[in-house]
Amino acid sequence: METLENEKIYILKKINNEYLKEKLNVPNLLFEKLDVFKNQFIKDKDDFIFFHNTLRNIFLPYQNKSFTYCRDLSDSFVNLEISLFDFYVKINTFFSIEIKKDKTEFSYNSLKVKALEYLESRKNIINYYLFFSKLRETKNVLIISNKIGGWSNPKYQIPEDFSLEVKSNFGYGRASYFYVTIKYKNVNITPFSDWLYYRFCKFFEINGYTKKYHSIGDLNKKIIFYSSWNEVVDFAYKTIKLIEDDLDTFIQNYIIDELRLMIEGLINISKYDNFDFYDIYSKNNLNEIPAFKRVNLRGEELLEFRTEKILGAIDFIEDITKINDLINLQSYIIEIEKISKMFFPVALQEFERITLIYLDKKEEYDILKPLYENQITLFYEEINRIESIMKELNDEEILKDYQFQIINLKNDIRIVSKKSMLLHNNFNRLRIAYEKFDHYISKYNAYFDKV
C-alpha cells in the first residue's frame, strides 16, 4: 500500500482545442480541510461537532461508492476493495464507543487527535481515490491512469467518425487485459500484422484491439505494468492529433501499411516454412520491444498453420469492407481472396485425407473407449468386493493373498488407464485437426458462396 505515496497519475485532457498530457502527483486533498484542526484545541462539544461534521462532509459523497485496488495489475485476484466512507464509519464508531464510556475526565480533543492520527496513517489510499474521483468527474479529462480492477476509461469520440477507448481489466490473472481500441464507425482499426506475428491466436483476439499493452506471462497471469499508462497516454495523444490533423497519414500508418504487411505475410506463409513469431513467454516481450522466435514447421503442422492463417484471413474482409468509405481498399480485399483461392485446393486435399483417417479412428475410439472404461469399473468393483471380504477375516496368510490380488488389480487399472489415455490423446489431436480444417474449409465456402 505504501507504494501509493509516490504513485503518479497520467492523464490526457482537452482544453479548448488543445490536448495536453500530464503526469500528476497525488495532492493531499484529505488534509486540505483538516489541517486547520491539527493545532486547534477542541475544548467543548460544539467544537467537536464542527470537527465531526467536517469529517462527515468529506466522506459522505462516497457513501455508496467503492473502489478496487490492484497492487499487481496482473494478479489473479483484485487485491483490495475499498470504500472511502468506511474510513468515516470506523472513526464515527470509535467516537460513539468512547463518548459512551463513563469517564471522570473526558477530552474531546483526544478524540480529535486519535482520529487525525488514524487518517494520517491512511492518507495515501484516501488521497489517491479522492483525487481519482475528482479527475473522473472532470469533463475535459479523457484518460486517467489507475489501478482499478475491471474498470475502463470512457470512450472518447474523435471527429471524422472515430472513437478511442482505453480498455483495462486488472486483477483477473489470465483474463486481465490492457489495450487501446480505435474505431471508425464502430469498426475496430485492427493491427492486421499481428495475425502473422502470433502463431496461436484467434480472429476475435486480434480484432479486439488497436494497440496492446499486456503480454503473456506464466500459466496463471499476464504481464501488465503500471508504467505502461505513460505509453498509453502518449499513444492516445499522438493518435488523436494524427486523426484530427493528418488523417491521410493515419490511414497510411494504421490501415494501408498493416494490410500490406498482412498480405505480404500471407504470401510468405504460402511459400516458406520458417517464420518469426512473437516469443510470447519471453521476459523481453514487453511494450515496444517484442522478442521474436524463429520456428521451422514441417508436414501436417505446416499445412495446418497455412490453412489457419490464409483461410482465416477471410474473417478480416468484412471489417475491411466496412471502412471502404474512408478509403477504397478493394484491391487489398481482392488480394486476400486471390491468396485464399490459390491455397484452397491444398487445404481441401489435406482435409479430405484427414477426414478419412478421422472417421476410421473415430469408429475405433467409439468401440475401445467404453470398453476400457468398463474394464476399469470392473477392476474397482472387484477391489471393493475383496476389501469387504477382508474386513471379516483374521487369517494373515489369506489376507496377504487378497492384498496381492488388490495390488495386481491396481496394476491392471494403471495399464488399462494408460491405454485409455493414449487412445484419448491420439484421437483428440486428430479431432482438433479435423475440426480446424472443417472450420476453415466451411468458412471459405460460405464466403465465396456469397461473393
What keywords describe this structure?
451 residues; alpha+beta; Helix Hairpins; 3 domains; three-stranded antiparallel β-sheet; 14 helices
Folded structure, characterized:
By secondary structure, the chain is α+β, with helices and mostly antiparallel strands. The protein has 3 domains: 2-67 and 82-141, no CATH class; 156-313, no CATH class; 349-450, Helix Hairpins (Orthogonal Bundle). Helix content is 57%, strand content 14%. The protein is built from 14 helices and 14 strands. The strands form 5 sheets. Strands 6, 7, 8, 9 and 10 form a 5-stranded antiparallel beta sheet that branches. A 3-stranded antiparallel beta sheet has the order 2-1-5, with helices on both faces. α4 (84-100) packs antiparallel against α5 and α11 (299-312) crosses α13. The model is unreliable at 283-289 (pLDDT under 50).
Q: How many β-strands, per DSSP?
A: 14
Main β sheet profile: 5 strands, antiparallel
Shape: flat
Cα-atom Rg, whole angstroms? Answer: 32 Å
Give the percentage of residues in beta strands.
5-15%
Mean pLDDT: 86
Total helical elements:
14
Query: Any low-confidence stretches, pLDDT <50, length ≥5?
Result: 283-289
Helical/strand content category: alpha+beta
Q: Could you state the order of secondary-structure elements as H and E?
A: EEHHHEEHHHEEEEEHHEEEHHEEHHHH
